[in-house]
Amino acid sequence: MIRKHFAGFAASALTLAVSAQAFAGTVTTDGADIVIKTKGGLEVATTDKEFSFKLGGRLQADADSFDGFYTKNGNRADETYFRRARLEISGVAFTDWGYTFNRNFSDKASDWDELAIHYNGWKPVQLSVGRINPTFGLEEAVSSKWITAIERSAIYDLAPWLNSHENGEGIRLRATLGDMFHGEVGGYRQDGNQDEDGQNNTTFVARGVFAPIVQDKQVLHFGLNYATREVEAGFDESIKSRLSVRGTTEDSVNGNRGTFGGAKLDGTDQAWGAEAAYMMGPFSIQGEYLARTADGDAVANGNDNDLEASGYNVQVAYTLTGESRSYKLDGGKFDKIKPENKQIGAWEVFYRYDDITVDETAVAPSNAGLLGLTADTAEASAKTHTLGVNWYANEAVKVSVNYLHTSVDDIVNANGDDDGDAISLRAQYVF
């Protein structure tokens, strides 16, 4: 019922926007004049900036073809699906108050990705309350509309709770100071991790960015991240990775999302991260490192093993048509590439290397028994190479092609494969 009413509201808003363009007329207000913008969605705002309303969204249609370790039996599988079909509403009310509503309709069970109220009266500090996506890492800070690869790095699979809105509702403070600093810290309620009294535990995530150079054609960026949460005795945790191919989870029959390790936890679960990036004109290079340690429950596991994992990635990109990636210090993130030539658009090529390792585990990786390994002898790891081309046809349309090759150690699929290949395609429209 909620989805039906929401869809009706969205359709009404779009109808009004089309009608406004189709028929000329006079618009009167009971206050300040209003400005209507239709480039990149629909935005209505008062000239005194006291009120605004913006309707936007994104549609990402994906196709994957993959084999080897990416499937259970090693044979090639193909999947097509809508990765995201998201409607986004945001705005300002009474100058100091803001709101953000993002809903994804691509999942079988649609859900709110973000549902938050913001207070901006303590400039430069912003206070947000509601369902908020935490930010841990440079790639996670970048919108899915403008990440370079189709899927983000596999290092985030080592601790998926870091950036998940499924942490539940929370409170976040963020601020951009001067021309070089950005920081944010938040506390988020954990779903499914309750103490004996039924109270939810809390996840804390913090990120700080130092950018000594922020120019149109040059950026130098550094960042540090930290997150921690308490987990109750016997909390079941496993580290699985689709190794940057979403189709492995869309294919419920033959897709393989290998388990690299796991444990029953009891105590503290922590993660640290570091990030760096440099951009000069059409060239950019960036890298990230992530490490996680979680206390194991010796009684529930039957051993004294904790859960430890680490990973890093390095990415280089070059825009063949000469454009630079845009960068926003507010958020400490890269943004879109705007084509200078409206006829051919902007063309970008890139290479990314991902390396992940589960150093210690209380539960042996999936199918490690085929290799004669146990939790005490396995150190499951994966290395993924991604080559890609992005075509920014204009500021709304982006087409991407990625080729991925991955190899794993101390883990295989049911067929005994320890490497695999994939081709991923995406057509994207944003408004």
Automatic annotation (TrEMBL):
Domain of life, per lineage: Bacteria
Keyword set, alphabetical order: Signal
Signal peptide: 1-24
Protein name: Porin
Organism: Pseudomonas benzenivorans
